[in-house]
Every structure is written in C-alpha cells, then in structure tokens.
Design brief:
Elements (H helix, E strand, L loop, with lengths): L2 H19 L14 H7 L4 E6 L2 E2 L3 E2 L6 H11 L3 E5 L9 H8 L6 E4 L5 H9 L4 E5 L5 H13 L3 E6 L2 H10 L3 E5 L11 H6 L9 E5 L5 H8 L3 E6 L1 H5 L3 H8 L3 H5 L2
Parallel strand pairs: 1-4, 1-10, 4-5, 5-6, 6-7, 7-8, 8-9, 9-10
Antiparallel strand pairs: 2-3
Helix pairs in contact: 3-4
C-alpha cells in the first residue's frame, strides 16, 4: 500500500465513525465569508496559503508544540492570503479543534486541509469555520469527485482541486474547477519536484482558473520560477512551520509579480 492508500483506508474508518457521532450544524461558532479566489486572482503579488502542520508521513514531527491560533495570527499579520489547517490526526497530528481555534482569531480565508471522501466532512468543515476544502484527484473516482465538488459549492464553500499528473488535470478541466492546486509532492512517494507545476500549468483550459502550486517552496528563486507559468498562489507548509523568522520568510516568498517580469 502507498502512503495515500493507508491514509484513505484510515479516513474511511473515520468517516464511518463520524456518521454515527456528528450532525450538521452542531458547531457554527464563528462564520466569516471570505473568498480565496477573489483575493488571489486580484493580487499584484504572489499570494501565500500558509499552513499549520504538526507532522507529516514523509517528514515525521515538524513542529509538534505549535499553538495553532498563535501561529494563525502571526500568519495573518505577516501577510498570508489564506491559512491552511491540517486536520488529519493519525498521519499529520492535526484536529478539527485546531481549525476552529484558528477561525476564532483570523479573518482571512481558511482551508480545511484533509482527505475529503464524504459529504459529512464537508458539513463539518463549514461548521468549524472553513471557507474552502481540499479535493484530491488521486483519492477518488471522477464521478465521486464531481459529487463532492458540487456539494461543497452548494454549501458556499470554495474547492481547492488538487492534481499531480496529466490525467488528474484532465479531470480538473472536466469538472471546470476554478481553483486548481498542483501538488509538487508525489502522494505515493512523497518526493517533491517543482517541474510538475511547470508541466501541468500548460494544460489548464479555463483562462480564469486560479492556479496554486503546492509544496517545495523555500527561496525567492523557487517562487520566481512559478510566476511565468501563471501561478498566482503557493501553499507553504514545512518552510513556515520550521521558520525562525516568519516575517523574513513571507518577504522571501510573497514577491511582487513585476519583480520577476522586470528581470
């Protein structure tokens, strides 16, 4: 089994339990209307989805003692266009309480970063304050992805539709996803290659698509490489979680688009 297979097997068990214990609308503590698409598509600089992630299957423990609301407030203060909160517990050490706690202290769009395979997870994401959810093309058949995509948009949630290869990009195009995330990390091997975004960016059909590149960003040069391929936003997790100077990290990665164009 690949890492993704193991995660999805565990997620199926989690969803079965959730259907016994969770009812739509039981939280709803704080709801903020915020569009990642509108914010990123209009920005004159590279927008950042800054991620809160304690651990990962590939890296192990990254920052086990992170205080999610404190980290979220810092991300917003230093210029994050959106914040991603990993809520998978077995493999990433996250919780839905992390998402809820961050929502209480920030106003930027909030991504519930998890392995979504059922509508009940979408209900829960909205209840806990998310503005958008992640759908991973590699995780489900096309027909099921379409159902979940439609359900999320009906709940007024945006969808970050994640792809990793040509076949998955074709699915994104067929679904007419307006926010496409290219994951530079292979979910089967967890190796990272920024060339994946370069290759797949050329296959997007809708001109108004918002392209997000995910994983592998450490330097300004990494980001500059993406600008010419139409990338408007980057998702940054490990680099943020290990940063000893978040302001400097944001300054390095959130470059004005003309900075690259004028060189």
């Amino acid at each position: 089994m690949t890492i993704l297979d193991k995660i999805l097997a565990a997620k199926a068990e989690e969803v079965a339990s959730l259907k016994q214990s969770y009812q739509k609308g039981q939280k709803l503590d704080k709801i903020i209307s915020a569009s990642l698409y509108d914010s990123f598509i209009q920005s004159d600089k590279m927008s950042i989805i800054a991620e809160i992630k304690r651990a990962s299957p590939s890296k192990g423990i990254i920052n086990e003692n992170v205080d999610p609301p404190k980290q979220g407030k810092q991300y917003q203060a230093y210029g994050a266009g959106a914040i991603s909160v990993l809520t998978d517990q077995p493999f990433f050490k996250g919780t839905m309480a992390d998402l809820q706690a961050v929502r209480e202290v920030v106003d930027v769009p909030l991504l519930n970063k998890d392995f979504i395979i059922d509508e009940i997870q979408i209900d829960r994401a909205k209840d806990y304050g998310a503005n958008l959810i992640l759908l991973i093309a590699a995780a489900l058949p096309k027909s099921r992805l379409q159902e979940l995509y439609d359900y999320a948009t009906q709940q007024n949630l945006e969808v970050l539709f994640e792809v990793h290869n040509e076949e998955e990009m074709a699915v994104a195009n067929d679904l007419q996803a307006n926010i496409i995330g290219v994951n530079n990390r292979n979910l089967k091997t967890f190796e990272v290659d920024l060339a994946i975004t370069e290759r797949l960016s050329q296959l997007i059909k809708k001109p108004d698509t918002l392209l997000i590149s995910e994983s592998g960003f450490k330097t300004t040069l990494d980001v500059e490489r993406m600008v010419s391929f139409g990338v408007k936003g980057i998702l940054v997790g490990e680099t943020m979680m290990r940063s000893g100077n978040l302001q400097a990290t944001f300054d390095q990665l959130s470059i004005p688009f003309e900075q690259k164009e004028n060189r």
